Amino acid sequence: MEHELALTALFNQYLAGPANALLNALGFHAENPAHPWPDWLVMQLLVVGLIMATVAILRPQLSAENPGKLQHVFELIYEFIANTISEVGVHHGERYIYYIGTIFIFILSMNLIGLIPGLDSPTNYIYVTVGLAVVTFFYYNITGFKELGIGYLKQFAGPVAWLAPLMIPIELISHLCGPFRSAFVYTATCSRGSR
To answer: Is the pLDDT of residue 135 over 60?
Structure first.
């Protein structure tokens, strides 16, 4: 077994029973029932808890007349994302800013938590990057169908109709492999950087 973080050891010591019960209810079994909590999951839960605590602290203090330092930080993040979406040329980008902003803050927080001694960045683990890639894959495809209806599928046919029989299989394979390719490249980059 690889080195277990101190926080993960606490989870495994005090919350192994509930974790095993949940895994069994979902039809899975932990490799080691005494240690069902992996580091990456505990670190993700910590990040989610920290983000929720930040929002709980920030929300009552929001003020248009007298914004605090934390509000300024989040307003800068919002402007950065809005400007980036606009510069990339996304049509009606304001519709997607909340999803993109949430993913941005979540990934940024997961990367920054790895800088704290005794903690690890969850994005070093392929489970996390693949999970985020798959969720984003479903999000943009569902959004595409909502926006364009069945016409969304035209993107797979290519620029000219006579190439469609060749382009459709190539585009579908490329489209379906995209999230996993991105996740593997990102994880490999993070792993090299943490060595």
So the answer is: yes
The burial of 64, by beta-carbon neighbours within 10 Å (0-12 exposed, 13-18 middle, 19 or more buried), is given as exposed
**Which one, of 119, 97, 122, 98, lies nearest residue 108 by Cα?**
122
Is residue 58 within 8 A of residue 69, CB to CB? The reply is: no
Tell me whether residue 117 is exposed, middle or buried, using C-beta atoms within 10 angstroms of its C-beta: 0 to 12, 13 to 18, 19 or more. Answer: exposed
Q: Can you tell me the mean pLDDT for 26-52? A: 92
Domain ranges of the chain: 1-37, 40-120, 125-195
Confidence category of residue 120, pLDDT binned at 50, 70, 90: very high
Q: Do residues 63 and 75 touch, judged by C-beta distance below 8 A?
A: no
State residue 1's pLDDT score: 46
Question: Is pLDDT larger for residue 182 or for residue 177?
Answer: 177
DSSP type of residue 36: -
Question: Could you tell me the pTM of the whole model?
Answer: 0.80
Q: What pLDDT score was predicted for residue 182?
A: 67
**Rounded to an integer, what distance in angstroms lies between the CA atom of residue 168 and that of residue 154?**
9
